[in-house]
Amino acid sequence: MAVDARDVALKIINEVDTGGAYANIALARELGRRPLSDQDRRFVTELVYGTVKAGATLDWLLGHYCSRPLAKIDPVIRNILRMGVYQIFFLSRVPVSAACNQAVELAKKHGHAGTVKFVNAVLRSAARDPGKAVYPDADKEPARYLALKYFHPEWLVERWLARLGFEACEALLAADNATPPLSLRTNTLRISRDDLLVRLADEGAAGEPSRWTPEGVVCREYPALARLASLQEGLFQVQDESSMLVAHVVGPQPGEFVIDACGAPGGKSTHLAALMGNRGRVLSTDLYEHKLKLTAENAVRLGLGIIETKVFDATKLDTAYASQADRVLVDAPCSGLGVLRRKPDSRWRKSASMLRDLPVLQAAILASAAACVKPGGVLVYSTCTTEPEENEAVVRAFLAGRDDFALVSAGALLPVPRAEEMVQLWPHVDGVDGFFIARMERRREPV
Ligand SMILES: C[S@@+](CC[C@H](N)C(=O)[O-])C[C@H]1O[C@@H](n2cnc3c(N)ncnc32)[C@H](O)[C@@H]1O
């Protein structure tokens, strides 16, 4: 493996570590710029995602071999060490000697004689004696053990451990670390799912029908998305299976006026429009113009003319649309704790304070969105988190304050019905992104 692939990986890891870059975005940009072989692209991806995801565990491992505090080491050198230790401990197909040698080469390029010696000494000592780093006892320190073993922040593991117990918590953490399949939603206005599967196979993507939704396709082997002409032709939208369930629970009908209050980048707005047969009106609002541009682009690519995008603060939606919509969807801004498997760095950006702050915003958006629902209309609240403070608690608090809305079963409206009134999906149980969906209906008559 040429040093160049590791150098690209190092550049991205550095940007994530010191510049606050998102790993997936920086990776896509850097891979787009360079003529790397497919093998090198896969290696860079594995190295970046693995090193970023294993963050705190790598620092803990390094602490056993390096006497200097990591915070005092030059960031580039620190990240060379992290990449090296990731390969030594977690990439068994890379020979440890290669991991050490290439790290030393990187240190020569980015450091000086002293740092070269330092990197060499730390990594060779880790390679010689990997058993020196002993994980905490799972019985005595379960949260610390799971956090280090499965690369998650300890505060989050403590929370899930208390709620789910050891076994389920461990299964959830493992599911967060597994690579999710690519999941696509057929644009049923242009092609049937069966025909899309044939078309994808012709393009080198091995897909199978989703067991969750009638328009879903799951691909485990596929080329780079940019190489799929079927994407450019608007034959599908990339969307997780659990996210596809939301529009089914909204259940929009042709000719209706539907508001998607937090709509960008348009995964659900475009699904709603497709379910309406591209007849009626979907107003997709969001706080950010640049995100709404993506909604508009998706709508054009998929051939959906009924979607209108508008910058709007959803906490004030009722100032313009009171009692006007047949259905309103609130796919609320949330902690995203159900979708950690999608973005390797995201787990390190979360904090317990989000679970105190976000429900306040979620409640304000839900209240304003509710006021836009016509009597007899539908209000759906969804998130991509698993946390009750952002889910059931927001819905219950909303309903407690008013008797003009009633909770109805979201589970009964899923393509494959479930018993729960409010649906909570989990990566380790359901094999899809963690998602929450609740449906309420506004009574026709004041009570
Ligand atoms: C979970 S994402 C929505 C995803 C989208 N429904 C989809 O399926 O593609 C939440 C969105 O809420 C937006 N948002 C955050 N605060 C908002 C507010 N006060 N008003 C409107 N949108 C807001 C964010 O910009 C983000 O795009």
TrEMBL record:
GO terms for molecular function: methyltransferase activity. Residues 172-443 form the SAM-dependent MTase RsmB/NOP-type domain. It comes from Anaeroselena agilis. It comes from the Bacteria. The keyword S-adenosyl-L-methionine applies. This is 16S rRNA (cytosine(967)-C(5))-methyltransferase. The gene is rsmB. Its main location: cytoplasm. One of its GO terms (biological process) is methylation.
